[in-house]
């Protein structure tokens, strides 16, 4: 009899578990699933000979934000770099520190709650921060009109797509590069839930608690006529390459998809041939 009672209670226990997980996801506002900020900086670019300027600027809601501006000697363009979901600009600068030597200024903003930026990150907030970064750069005296580019990696690529689709033309964006971007917040969350044995059976209902208001796949068609370059590593197990393929299918021309074998998540820029190819693409897109 005791065994029968225990067995009959199992469905109820599983139901309570899924409800608790769902409530936890909703109460967290999904922030902890997508944002892993680190305050402060691990190092100063000047210690390795990288020239930079500390920049403070403000989002529309008043949040005070911080970033680094890396100047080129004779800039052909300026790139706003939106980093991934963890740590801060001090650990992501390696992806773009080489660009000033190739003729491109780089502005690296930290989202709210990351690095020295104030506030706490959430979906709407990081999009406000990306727009504020565009506004800041577009208004700088040392940035020539018609040379603004947005480059995003991982979460930053997804934020970049939606931001440029909405704000790109208004701020004079001339090109967009999205490396290892995911196509849907709900979709990538469902995949991550599916990788954990505890949440695998509930990946679909749990993912319904994730807002897809800013899903790049729903906005990417509006990036056009701004040229879009999508980059994907075929060995990416963090954001599988089908996300970039989905974005490519949903986009309108001009759009290109570069896929690289033996490349993992956000690793493409570690290759010299990719760096050369990106610079050539930028020069061609900006008519240099």
What do you see in this structure?
- The protein is an alpha/beta fold.
- The chain has one domain: 3-Layer(aba) Sandwich (Rossmann fold).
- Helix content is 36%, strand content 19%.
- It is built from 10 helices and 10 strands.
- The strands form 2 sheets. Strands 2-3-6-4-7-8-9-10 form an 8-stranded mixed beta sheet, with helices on one face. Strands 1-5 form a two-stranded parallel ribbon.
- It is globular.
- How many helices in DSSP terms? 10
Sheet with most strands: strand arrangement: 2-3-6-4-7-8-9-10
Helix content: 25-40%
> How many runs of DSSP E, i.e. beta strands?
10
- CATH level-two architecture: 3-Layer(aba) Sandwich
In terms of structural class, how would the helical and strand content be classed?
A: alpha/beta
- What profile does the largest beta sheet have? 8 strands, mixed
